[in-house]
Design a protein that fits this description.
The complex is a heterodimer of chains A (270) and B (271). Chain A is mostly helical. Chain A has eleven helices and no strands. The C terminus of chain A is likely disordered. With 271 residues, chain B is mainly α. Chain B has one domain: MetI-like (MetI-like fold, Orthogonal Bundle), CATH 1.10.3720. Chain B has a two-stranded antiparallel ribbon. In chain B, helix 3 packs across helix 9 and helix 8 packs antiparallel against helix 9. Classes of the chains: A mainly alpha (270), B mainly alpha (271). At the A-B interface, helix 1, helix 2, helix 3, helix 4 and helix 5 of A face helix 1, helix 3, helix 4, helix 5 and helix 7 of B.
């Protein structure tokens, strides 16, 4: 079918305009972070001075964000993958209710979840001032993404039949889970893991209320630098953040392009 | 059948959720109901004009940003679905999807670089007209921020939906002499409606709760997340902050729930 040229032209024009709107400011930010003086412009020369300054000012927030993201990922995997398997097997009212409930922290604004956490758990000594307080918030927010991704992989293959077969052959529940369910859900778990890391590294709405001056994460530091630092430093800091995101996003795109099909070959315990 | 035994595998997730989200939320709802000077914070919120203004601003702004996002995303989604092979398509999609992972604070900063005091729009208008145009630090900046935030998500959803449209229907309509406009209105738009509802709800819910963007642009913008934050930190008025959070949470969840049942698609507010 021939599509009308006006249609195509309009589509192309809007698409390019949207791309320019989305990427233009990113390019400006990268340039500002690498320019000696943004007011003067590129003619003032390029430099890595601001990036170095960001490192000396905010290195701790960068390491902390890595640590929080990894802890979040470990908990999300340990808790989320078994839950995903239960939700794959069960279609009863209880399972559906659990599924709906788990997504609530994503649907409800982070500010509300953070306030609730502070009100109920903020007085527990040692918790309020530790990174664990932030990790708890991040787990609540990212768990639904891990569950959804893992479940998508589990639904592909007929794992329930394999599981029952292994069960009649005498495999324990744990063996079946580790050797049938987890390997088959691996692509989904990896997708979920990258999503969890990406979301945790960028999380601000919850973290801003949950952090203390001693537990600042990268986005908290970013907000800080936007408010009080010169534009070049804020931009260089944003650049560091973008560089951290790129490998995760490239990984996610690569997985999506592979079709995210569950591996059909299964390894059962001997 | 040994299936029931698996139920235990969901216990850690359920416990975590119960202890750190559901019970704290219930606690928050109760704090809002505690009476202070003989009235609960919910009553104060329902009768306080400033909170209604804040709520109205938030809803109006989120609605405007959602409509704008959908209007702009629709042609992009149709274009990308219609043209599956051209040089640079993958790069273009990567660029369109890159901002998906940006938190609200970063979006706010990018809007400042675009329309702030040292922004590119200011520089251009100064060069063209002599006066610097600055609109980042208010409702207009926030609108632009919400648009920036929602566009990648909506483009993604609408492209996927447009790719599913049965091309033979369009070809048949074309053979029968339907104009491009008729084909769009009678075939494409109805087919895309569930995706539009889903993407719209997602965009609306995200905008309602967006705190980071508003926080970066200006701490005095009168939208609900900022009002809650100010009640909590500046006035230490925890009951009102709690009551407003519950109202905001319920409103956002209700929008997603209605859209979910209308469209039958899974919608959720992102970061």
């Amino acid at each position: 079918m021939k599509t009308s040229t006006t249609d195509t032209r309009l589509g192309l024009a809007v698409t390019l305009a949207v791309a320019a709107f989305l990427i233009g400011p990113v390019i400006l930010s990268v340039l500002a972070g690498l320019t000696n003086n943004y007011f003067v412009g590129l003619s003032s020369g390029l430099t890595l001075r601001w990036v170095a300054e960001v490192w000396s000012l905010y290195a701790d927030t960068i390491w902390r964000s890595f640590a929080v993201a990894l802890l979040t990922l470990v908990i999300c995997t340990l808790v989320g993958v078994p839950a995903a398997w239960v939700l794959t097997l069960h279609h009863g009212r209880l399972a559906r209710a659990l599924e709906e409930l788990l997504t609530l922290p994503v649907a409800v604004p982070g500010l509300a979840s953070a306030l609730a956490l502070i009100v109920s758990w903020g007085t527990v000594s040692g918790l309020r001032g530790s990174v664990w307080f932030i990790v708890i918030g991040h787990v609540l927010f990212t768990l639904p993404f891990m569950v959804r991704a893992a479940r998508a992989s589990m639904q592909g293959a007929d794992l329930a039949t394999l599981d029952e077969a292994a069960s009649t052959l005498g495999a324990t529940r744990m063996q079946r889970f580790m050797h049938i369910v987890v390997p088959n859900a691996a692509p989904g778990i990896v997708t979920g893991a990258l999503t969890v890391l990406t979301l945790s590294i960028g999380e601000f709405n919850l973290t801003w209320l949950l952090h203390t001056p001693l537990t600042k994460t990268l986005p908290v530091g970013l907000a800080d630098s936007y408010a009080s630092m010169r534009l070049e430093i804020a931009s260089a800091y944003t650049l560091v953040f973008l560089l951290m995101l790129i490998p995760l996003l490239v990984g996610l795109q690569w997985l999506a392009a592979r079709g995210d099909r569950p591996i059909s070959t299964t390894r059962t315990s001997s | 059948m040994k299936r029931p035994g698996w139920m235990w595998f969901a216990v850690p997730a359920a416990t975590l959720f119960l202890a750190f989200w559901l019970l704290p939320m219930a606690g928050l709802a109760l704090i809002g109901a505690e009476s202070r000077n003989g009235q609960s914070a919910y009553w104060a919120v329902l009768t306080g004009t400033q909170y209604w203004v804040s709520l109205f601003n938030t809803v109006a702004l989120s609605l405007a940003a959602t409509v704008a996002t959908l209007v702009v995303s629709l042609p992009v989604g149709r274009f990308l679905a219609r043209h599956r092979r051209f040089r640079g398509r993958r790069l273009l999609i990567s660029l369109l999807m890159f901002p998906l992972a940006f938190p609200g604070v970063v979006v706010g900063f990018l809007i400042i670089l675009l329309a702030g005091r040292q922004g590119i729009i200011g520089a251009l208008t100064k060069w063209l007209t002599g006066s610097t145009m600055v609109f980042a630090y208010g409702m207009a900046g926030l609108f632009l921020g919400y648009l920036y935030f929602s566009l990648p998500r909506c483009v993604g959803v609408l492209t996927a939906a447009a790719e599913q449209i049965d091309q033979s229907l369009l070809e048949a309509a074309c053979t029968l002499g339907a104009s491009p406009w008729r084909r769009f209105m009678d075939i494409e738009l109805p087919a895309l409606t569930p995706a539009l509802i889903g993407a719209g709800a997602m965009s609306f819910a995200t905008s309602m709760g967006a705190f980071g963007t508003a926080f970066t642009l200006a701490t005095q913008i009168d939208v609900l997340p900022i009002t809650i934050y100010n009640e909590f930190t500046n006035y230490a008025n925890i009951p009102v902050a709690a009551a407003l959070s519950i109202v905001l949470g319920l409103a956002t969840w209700a929008v997603l729930y209605v859209a979910h049942s209308l469209a039958g698609t899974r919608a959720s507010a992102g970061a």
